[in-house]
């Protein structure tokens, strides 16, 4: 029993550590001294963020970042967005029901959109089938209840 409680507490702690939240202005200022802006751009692209996120970061740093930061950020972003905008990632985001954001450039968008639409439609169909099944079950219970209430039973 103690072991089970320990596992539950450990799991909850790990989930809390792994949760994602929107970075605060204070969290962004830690990037101001970041020396690897290429890696920052790469990671933000893989997270599906806009390329313009750099402008927000720059403003949070009171425009106090290296002059070369933007060009290295953009280089990293372009590398990351190529990995993000794939058919496979479109499938993943479509299955999760995430919004189809328009971060992918035109030349990469077709494959991403195709994967997204394929998965999203499948999820919608599955949800519709589940809704219909729940409606039928509710109707069956109501009919059964009506029969019992009127003194007749099946």
Automatic annotation (TrEMBL):
Biased composition annotated in UniProt, kind: Basic and acidic residues: 128-140
Highest taxon of the lineage: Bacteria
InterPro entries given in the database record: DUF2799 (IPR021242)
Region of interest: Disordered: 124-154
Biased composition (Polar residues): 141-154
Database matches in PROSITE patterns: PROKAR_LIPOPROTEIN (PS51257)
Entries under Pfam families matching the protein: DUF2799
Listed name of the protein: DUF2799 domain-containing protein
Lineage: Bacteria, Pseudomonadati, Pseudomonadota, Gammaproteobacteria, Alteromonadales
